[in-house]
Design a protein that fits this description.
4-stranded antiparallel β-sheet; 5-stranded antiparallel β-sheet; 14% helix; single chain; mainly beta; 119 residues
Length: 119
């Protein structure tokens, strides 16, 4: 085989490898957030955040903050509750829209959590 044939064969092999590469190599990620502030003196509470929206089934890959854990909700249904942020990593989730609510301890009446998932 000459150099030209070898080069064409290598180009074809590379193209075939790229086309057949697993989709996970090209995975996208999304991040959702949740924050809670409780004002015991006034009996009020404020929650806000950005939903974790998975267009396809995915897996939690990172959790930032959320020291006291957090709960995931799909609509009004509790999907999962985590005592520590680390315990959520690796959790597989079906496609959907998830609300994130951080746990708040009696001393620290406010908290924030960010959850990243790949799909």
């Amino acid at each position: 085989m000459g150099n030209k044939s070898t080069g064409q064969w290598l180009a074809l092999a590379l193209a075939a490898a790229l086309v057949s590469a697993p989709q996970a190599a090209f995975a996208a990620s999304v991040t959702g957030t949740g924050s809670v502030v409780k004002h015991d003196e006034y009996g009020t509470e404020r929650e806000w955040g950005r939903d974790l929206v998975l267009p396809e089934a995915g897996e939690i890959t990172r959790v930032t903050d959320g020291t006291y854990g957090f709960t995931l909700y799909h609509g009004s249904e509790q999907v999962a509750a985590f005592i520590t942020p680390e315990s959520a990593v690796g959790t597989k989730l079906p496609a959907g829209k998830y609300r994130i609510e951080p746990n708040v301890c009696p001393t620290h009446r406010h908290h924030h959590v960010e959850v990243t998932a790949k799909y």
